[in-house]
Amino acid sequence: MPVPLPAGIYRDYYGAISNEVLWMLQHHLVGQFGYSSLDAERHRAWSEGYLEANRRIASAIADSGIKPRAFLIQDYHLYPLPAMLREKFPGALSLHFTHIPFPDSATLKLIPQTWRDTILHGLLGADVIGMQTEWDARPFLGCCEELLGAEVDYKNSTVKARDGRKIRVRTFPASTDPTEVEQLMRSPAMKAARARLASSINGSDVVEKQIIIRVDRLDPSKNQLIGFRAFGRLLERRPDLRATLRFLAFLIPSRTDLHVYRAYRDAVYATIAEVNARFAADCGGEPIHVFYTNDREQALAAMEQGDVLLVNSREDGMNLVVKEWAVVSERPGVAVISETAGVASTTGDAAILVSPLDIEGTARAMEQALELPGAERWSRLKRLRNNVHEWSAAHWLEAQLAELNAIAQTTT
């Protein structure tokens, strides 16, 4: 059900608070290219934008005449909503799922007490609070205990709310739909995408060169700056790779209405230009090819033929690019993943893990990935692919519904 919001309220709700404060804080992006401080205007945006938008959504549902049995509420934009809906629909069950990392209490203290109390009590309005991994669930429990003084049962992963209810805190790792991805890879749209990719990088490069690829929104949390600096370091370390290695970077435009995102984009492009200028002569052309577009099919075509997938996010709730790549990779490729991305908790030793701020370590990890023998590459890929088939997007949704159904069975 659409809930129209006036432009000013939407800008404050979505831009000024959800993305410039909560997104940055929860990815531990503080300072340059992140959350820095809260002035009077930001406090106004919290009250008149973020809280007001959530109030309007709750009222619109209540005024619709619908009498839902349950709600599935998604992400950091809607932290206050579970408590608001409980007031209006006391008999309905609800589950709130946070897709991004949840911070510890020390980090949450970087916003005012009234804000964090609203966030935590808002979430405790739900019957089930879903997180991506235990890396998120444990900090949430700690925040409730330390910042609210709530009774927390760490063994059973529950929190006692102000009204006496025991709220379940559960993990539901997000995933992709491997069947949909496989069908797409066989479609006419993919045939056209492969042709577009070949044309854009002079055809034979995809077949004859070794390819490192990244696919992510151009966002400070995705850490492209460090990734491209690490690639430059790799070319410094290994002059013998310069003529045979290319980096295909699919950078999806993101939140370009916000100054911090535009500034980060400019910094990333400056880094790419520096690396390309330094190595173009020895590489026989610019080694980094940028695709600044949201073209899923073309990105999948590149992932299909890539030797290395680089996902060096500062932090990620999960990162579904890794899971789609595991379905489509054919060379086969090797994943180099930040150990602070949620997906790292599901890969085991099938991926090569790196510290997201370690330029030298990331360069060496990409080098290791390029040199792995074929049998090991296939073994790692198969383990990742099996993980996706064993826990797909359907399993993710079914697990949440099952949790709500279990509660319903105990209350009827």
Please explain how this structure is put together.
With 412 residues, the protein is of the alpha/beta class. It has 17 helices and twelve strands. A hairpin with a 5-residue loop joins β5 and β6. The strands form two sheets. The chain has a six-stranded mixed sheet with strand order 1-2-3-6-5-4, sandwiched between helices. Strands 9-8-7-10-11-12 form a six-stranded parallel sheet, with helices on both faces.
What keyword list fits this structure?
alpha/beta; 6-stranded mixed beta sheet; Rossmann fold; 17 helices; 412 residues; 2 domains; 53% helix
User: What summary fits the major beta sheet?
Assistant: 6 strands, mixed
How many domains make up the coordinates?
A: 2
Q: Topology as H/E string?
A: HHEHEHHEHEEEHHHEHEHEHEHEHEHHH
Low-pLDDT parts are none
CATH homologous superfamily placement of the largest domain: Glycogen Phosphorylase B
The Rg value, from CA coordinates, equals: 23 Å
Mean pLDDT rating: 96
Distance separating the two termini: 28 Å
Number of strands: 12
**What is the count of DSSP helices, taking H or I runs of 4+ residues?**
17
CATH topology of the largest domain: Rossmann fold
CATH class of the largest domain: Alpha Beta
Structural class: alpha/beta
Large-scale geometry: globular
Residues in β-strands, percent: 5-15%
Strand order of the largest sheet: 1-2-3-6-5-4
Q: Which percent range fits the helix content? A: 40-55%
Task: Name the CATH architecture of the largest domain.
Answer: 3-Layer(aba) Sandwich
